[in-house]
Amino acid sequence: MFCQNCGDKLKVGAAFCSNCGAKAQQDNGDTQRADLVGFSERYNSPDILEAARKNRKSSIGCMWILVFVPLVGFPIAGLLMDDFPFGESVVIGVGIALMMLIVNLFGLRRAKQPMWEGVVTNKFSKERHHHNRTNDESDTYSTYTEYTTVIRMDTGKEKKLIERDSQRDMYDYLAVGDRVRYHPTFDTYEKYDKSKDRIIYCNVCRMMNPIQNDRCKRCNNLLFK
Q: Among 65, 112, 177, 207, which residue's beta carbon has the most beta carbons within 10 A?
């Protein structure tokens, strides 16, 4: 459940929002609006197209930073550190740079894929354990909760959205039976029927907003309504 005033996530059973102090309101069924049923055409608006251009430009810039930092940084470390052979530092730097380049190229390629639609078919959570090795080579284990939202694409393929711990926005936002559209430019999901919702998800910056907002309170881009 989310705050109607600021869009922040509410704690279970909370009477007031811990972020803005507004009184928590329960959905009484009077928020249904016919104009909030259907996928938005705002993804074609000039504002959103400009946001998509900036997003791609930023992604390309980050890609080159992640490539050049290890490519230059490791050889420099090899020259400055006596216990780090220069040849080994070059090999490690080139290897990490190539890995970063491949990962980011796949991300840019995914952003060019066409939009697709599907239906949420399942949601479940599971406790996971992570093995940690400390500096003194002792073993420790941490526990976290993994949240999975399953979407059956219209093509018949299955897409799993995996989140963990408090970063479970889609798990909370989407319900089984919801029809969704995937926007590859921003790697975000839009809900078809928003008529019963009190909050709306920004497809540009992923911020939760009160449903009455027309623009995102964080990035000021149009919300997909």
A: 207
Report pLDDT digits (tens) over 67-100.
Answer: 999 999 999 999 999 899 999 999 999 999 999 9
pTM confidence score: 0.73
- The secondary structure element, H or E, covering residue 66 is helix 46-80
- Which residue's structure tokens are 């909030």? 36
Of 150, 101, 155, 91, nearest in space to 126 by CA: 150
Give backbone dihedrals phi and psi of 221, rounded to 5 degrees, phi first: -85, 155
* Run of H or E including 78: helix 46-80
How far is CA 176 from each of CA 71, 102, 118, 161, rounded to the nearest angstrom? Answer: 46, 35, 11, 13
